[in-house]
Design a protein that fits this description.
There is one protein chain. By secondary structure, the protein is of the alpha/beta class. It folds into two domains: about 190 residues, no CATH class; about 170 residues, Rossmann fold, CATH 3.40.50. Helices cover about 35% and strands about 20% of the residues. Strand 10, helix 10 and strand 11 form a beta-alpha-beta unit. Helix 6 crosses helix 7, helix 6 packs across helix 11 and helix 11 packs across helix 12. The longest helix is centred in the N-terminal third of the chain and has 18 residues.
Length: about 375
């Protein structure tokens, strides 16, 4: 039996109510302020996970009751103490590796200092998140009839950890890439590195996300922005958009007003084991988790007790390696999903048909905005 732990936190204010129902009746500022003084708690117990190799796995979900705004706007030394306490709790529970979820893997130096302070290894899960985001995106593009050789591909948050790795992993399969982030200097450096390594690749840069996606056939959204940055009228008819970011970069309104685009949840993974119980309501069907948590589970099942993915850079060979290990144990993409709901082949075919109608739905959405 292998054991892991994973740190999670509320992505939105109303997530507090999943654990503490009374918070739904209180002002957000009061709840956020009060929970700054609450220690990490065991939020769930993962049981019944069994690898195709026959290895069993259990784990604990350590809840850090801090919103993204609190994590990102607080001094990192203070956040680090909270994470260290969560890590010590994981050690006491018998975990052999610790995974960081959502904004706990973005804050500070992305787990490097935390790993130095614990007796168990730490991973952000970003390698498997990258692998499965690209896998799902390319598969969806094929279903939508998008030709990769001529497709305009845009990566939002391209200079971040996952965004940068996504660019390098996708580069061999595409020709036209637009990279988007807040700082032009960092984008220029990344563009130069990409074109040097992949001479066939045409790369341009943008600091304006909404403009950058308007002619994109494929969008991978991994920006660390604390809310939606893309609206319905920004998108091209027939586009595939994979939203890896949590909180989401793509407005939920898109699914209601743009039936001609395919928006996907990035990195939702089905875990192996007929009796697998995640011990927590993630908003997914049973046996499904985010890819960052799945990476922690895969490493535990593989007895790879090491600091696998840490810091600002993701090693592309590790993206391939964790993807292979996941397949060996029976982890797989949970089909195509949009805002926690499964999308079947019939729905994708309808989206593709709508995208070819005239006038374009994007023009209609823009007229209504």
């Amino acid at each position: 039996m292998r054991r892991f732990a994973f740190v999670l936190h509320p992505l939105r204010f109303d997530d507090f109510a999943r654990k503490y129902a009374f918070t739904r009746y209180l002002p957000q500022s009061v709840v956020e302020s009060a929970f700054k003084h609450v220690h990490p708690v065991v939020a769930g117990h993962v049981t019944g996970v069994r690898s195709l190799t026959g290895e069993d796995l259990e784990g604990w979900l350590i809840g850090l009751p801090l919103t993204p705004q609190v994590i990102m706007n607080s001094p990192y030394d203070w956040v680090l103490k909270k994470l260290e306490r969560a890590g010590k709790m994981a050690e006491d529970l018998g975990a052999e590796i610790l995974g960081l979820g959502a904004f706990t893997k973005i804050a500070g130096d992305r787990g490097v200092t935390l790993a130095q302070r614990l007796h168990i290894p730490v991973t952000t899960g970003n390698s498997y998140t990258t692998a499965t985001a690209v896998e799902g995106t390319l598969a969806a593009a094929g279903r939508m009839g998008i030709t990769l050789n001529s497709a305009e591909v845009t990566v939002l948050g391209a200079t971040g950890s996952i965004g940068r790795a996504t660019c390098f992993v996708m580069a061999p399969s595409i020709r036209y890439l637009r990279i988007v982030a807040r700082h032009a200097d960092a984008l220029t450096l990344l563009a130069a590195e990409l074109t040097q390594r992949f001479p066939h690749l045409s790369v341009d840069i943008s600091t304006d996300a909404r403009t950058a996606v308007r002619d994109a056939d494929i969008v991978v959204a991994v920006s660390s922005a604390p809310g939606a940055i893309i609206e319905p009228q920004d998108l091209k008819a027939g586009a595939v958009i994979t939203d890896v970011a949590r909180p989401r970069n793509i407005s939920s309104v898109v699914t209601q007003s743009r039936p001609d685009v395919l928006v996907l949840d990035g990195g939702v993974i089905e875990v192996p084991g007929s009796q697998a119980d995640m011990g927590f309501n993630f908003g997914f069907p049973p046996k499904m988790v985010e890819a960052c948590m799945a990476e922690t589970m895969i490493l535990a099942l593989s007895s790879r007790f090491e600091n696998f993915t840490l810091g600002a850079d993701i090693e592309v060979p590790k993206v391939s390696e964790i993807h292979r290990l996941g397949q060996d144990h029976g982890f797989q993409l949970a089909g195509f999903r949009r805002f926690e709901r499964a999308i079947d082949s019939t729905e994708i075919d309808l989206i593709r048909q709508r995208a070819h109608r005239q006038p374009s739905s994007r023009e209609n959405a823009a007229d209504k905005s």
